[in-house]
Amino acid sequence: MGTLNESLEQLAVRMxxxxxxxxxxxxxxxxxxxxxSGEVQKIVAAVENSRESxxxxxxxxxxxxIAELKAQLESGKPAPSPRKTLSASAAQFLARQGLxxxxxxxxxxxxxxxxxxxxxxxxxxxxxxxxxxxxx
Length: 136
Description:
By secondary structure, the protein is an all-alpha fold.
């Protein structure tokens, strides 16, 4: 019986040592996990700060542009008109058809000038005129 008790005591001591080692391992793993999540949080915070500063810069630029436009309106200066350009080939074609002034092209004159073109070419010329703001 003495040897059985000694064996049980040795087993109990070994189990206590294993339990202690297991607790230290769990604590170490929890510490590593919290360090990792902290790193992820730092990275997320850095990305959010970068994005926020970028949006702040864009907002400031937009507010400045709005202020400039309001100042122009209040001073009575006309706002700059949008650029009205047409491709060189379309302008040359219209000039050959007798449409030299392109401030505003009337639909009837434009349709008459484009009669010799295919449907696709007419659509392309009209699309260029619309983009340039010359036809409506």
